[in-house]
Amino acid sequence: MGNGQTKGEMETAIRNAIIKFEQEFMGRGPTDVRAFILRDVILVRLKGVLTQAERQLANNADGVEMVKRMRQNLIAQGRENLCGEITNITGVKVTGLFTDIDAQIGERVIVFALDRDLDVAIS
Questions:
Q1: Where are the chain's structural domains?
Q2: Which position among 14, 38, 86, 106 has the lowest Cβ density within 10 Å, counted as fewest Cβ atoms?
Q3: pTM for the model
């Protein structure tokens, strides 16, 4: 399992997959992405994810909600591809994808729930 990769190599591959997804689906990549494998969960933290237009919208409460809704819809459309990519990298099935964005600071968190403990699978 884990396709013969170390935990660090897997986290780097996940990070790169998320950057590619953001560039293709959202139109631009984040300024910083970090991925962490924590047993049967993968936590991804993205900084600098908002476009200039989204930053303008996020100046008021209605705009913040609009940005969040749009980002949620986009990730829902790309969910199957994204989960498939994580499965290809890790060798385990993704059972859930959870995400939220803080439009005021331009950060997003993505959490992937897995069907097995990766720390056990790769050690």
A1: 2-121
A2: 38
A3: 0.89
